[in-house]
Write a structure and sequence with these properties.
Chain lengths: 142, 142
Amino acid sequence: MKIGELARRSGLTAHTIRYYERIGLLPYADRDRSSQRDYDASILTWIEFLGRLKTTGMPIREMLRYAALREQGAGTEPERRAQLERHREQVRARIAELNACLLVLDTKIAGYAGAGNRIEDYDAYQRSRRNQPARTRQARAR
Amino acid sequence: MKIGELARRSGLTAHTIRYYERIGLLPYADRDRSSQRDYDASILTWIEFLGRLKTTGMPIREMLRYAALREQGAGTEPERRAQLERHREQVRARIAELNACLLVLDTKIAGYAGAGNRIEDYDAYQRSRRNQPARTRQARAR
DNA sequence: CATTGACTTAGAGCGCACTCGAACTCGTAG
DNA sequence: CTACGAGTTCGAGTGCGCTCTAAGTCAATG
């Protein structure tokens, strides 16, 4: 598969795929006789996993560490596992932090709901249930 | 209180506080007779709330919208509430997304944990070895 | 009176993660 | 043969959110 198709299938742009290869996040791809990258479908699995790491806030320099260990292959499994475990803890902490903020947000909104009832009555209120934000990326809460 | 103390108490740097004032995230502070900012303790509540918004991923331009409504004061409550409700939905979506990634991470880690379990990383490794001498840093050519 | 240290401003610089432009080469369709 | 579209490289540009520098002012202390 060529870069255009990989772009379509991975959700990255061709520019970003080349950028990732340049910095070492994606392995150097085979070129066909006219120097065009030719990808194996298996790269999609790796790109998808990189996407998870990115979604969970792992900076590129850490992904590079992981990618380098993966390239090295044999013997690096314990270190890769350790890195993922550290990252998992960070993600858990982040979720906890977000949940805490959610409570504050709820309180604040409840405060406005009371004030709104006094001043403006409630008419814009229902909109919050129907008026979902336009699709951003993937899963939706609740 | 002067900017240094506010910095200490808020966790921001004096630089950041001035920056926030410049862009309108913090109200223009009163100056004493030698042009130094003099803060009321109440600003801490606002800074703390801004911190929550930031922690939950609200971009500055949206905080500015909220801050502007707040400056306007009376009558803007329904809009402020609506904005917070939209934001709350995004935070919930983000948490859901992180939780989904957490499952993937758990699975991956479990794969590493099992003795002699190399799963799909092994295949990917074989593939990259088969390819060119994958230069992990800058790829040049020509 | 000199020094210290906290403050002031305008504006430049930085780290991150892309994102895009320019100029070029190929392979194929008409 | 020519045009087109998809690819190639190098390197510059972008948007975000700070972060820092330079040059100067000011009040209090030794």
